[in-house]
């Protein structure tokens, strides 16, 4: 029995099975998760889509930007109401005088008398002449102008500050349109003043010429006739 190795009897527990505790596991991280999305949930971000606004109502013009509508009565009035300027792309059809208003339908005519605006009757076939009446549309008066409705059903008017002018205060002092107006007036005066001075000069010269001619015709004629005793004798014709 002394031939048995001492190491075999010194560690008898090595042959006994050992109970091992299960290794600790960390909670799954977001970077290691590869679970497919279920039918009821999704990890993908959802993009919010804003639905387009409703179409414009009767008597309104669609700016075609899904945001803005303007009254038909403001079309082709020289003021851009749509941000994209679509309400002023009228070609040569908006050449109405200041005493006239534009009729978008062209019926009965492209231009009607401004006295027909807000008279309670559709003078334009599309009724555009009755769409800006009794209230102030959004941004009707520009550049700090104040909108006024003097009586029920009437067309609004604008009280402009000193720096603006026009029906809707659309003209600002120093703007291209304002400068064009002043330039046209200055050009007219520059042409008119020399013409008037020239006419006055012609009249003055003509008057003096006519007066001098009459003086020469009515002057006495002196005859130096040897038959007279004195050379200074005067004979009138």
UniProtKB/TrEMBL annotation:
Residues 21-38 have a biased composition (Low complexity). GO terms for cellular component: plasma membrane; receptor complex. It is found in: Membrane. Signal peptide: none annotated. Residues 1-18, 39-51 have a biased composition (Polar residues). Residues 1-51 are annotated as: Disordered. Residues 134-170 form the EGF-like domain. The chain crosses the membrane at residues 188-209. Pfam families: Ldl_recept_a (PF00057). GO terms for molecular function: low-density lipoprotein particle receptor activity. It is a single-pass membrane protein. The keyword Repeat applies. Disulfide bonds join 118-133, 141-158, 160-169. The keyword Disulfide bond applies. InterPro entries: EGF, LDL_receptor-like_sf, LDLR-related, LDLR_class-A_CS, LDrepeatLR_classA_rpt. Keywords: Disulfide bond, EGF-like domain, Glycoprotein, Membrane, Receptor, Repeat, Transmembrane, Transmembrane helix. PANTHER family: LOW-DENSITY LIPOPROTEIN RECEPTOR-RELATED PROTEIN 1B (PTHR22722:SF5), LOW-DENSITY LIPOPROTEIN RECEPTOR-RELATED PROTEIN 2-RELATED (PTHR22722). This is Putative basement membrane-specific heparan sulfate proteoglycan core protein. It comes from Ixodes ricinus.
């Amino acid at each position: 029995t002394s031939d048995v190795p001492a190491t075999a009897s010194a560690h008898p527990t090595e042959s006994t099975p050992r109970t091992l505790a299960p290794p600790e596991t960390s909670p799954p991280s977001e970077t290691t998760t590869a679970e497919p999305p279920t039918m009821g949930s999704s990890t993908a971000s959802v993009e919010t889509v804003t639905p387009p606004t409703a179409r414009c109502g009767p008597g309104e013009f669609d700016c075609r930007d899904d945001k803005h509508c303007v009254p038909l009565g403001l079309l082709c009035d020289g003021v851009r109401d749509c941000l994209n300027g679509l309400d002023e792309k009228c070609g040569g059809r908006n050449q109405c005088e200041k005493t006239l208003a534009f009729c978008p339908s062209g019926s009965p005519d492209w231009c009607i008398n401004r006295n027909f605006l807000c008279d309670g009757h559709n003078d334009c076939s599309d009724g555009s002449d009755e769409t800006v009446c009794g209230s102030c549309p959004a941004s009707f008066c520009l550049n700090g102008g104040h909108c006024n409705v003097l009586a029920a059903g009437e067309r609004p008017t604008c009280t402009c500050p000193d720096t603006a002018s026009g029906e809707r205060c659309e003209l600002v002092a120093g703007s291209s349109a304002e400068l064009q107006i002043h330039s046209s007036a200055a050009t007219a005066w520059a042409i008119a003043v020399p013409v008037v001075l020239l006419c006055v000069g012609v009249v003055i010269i003509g008057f003096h010429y006519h007066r001098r001619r009459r003086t020469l015709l009515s002057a006495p004629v002196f005859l130096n006739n040897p038959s007279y005793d004195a050379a200074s004798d005067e004979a009138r014709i």
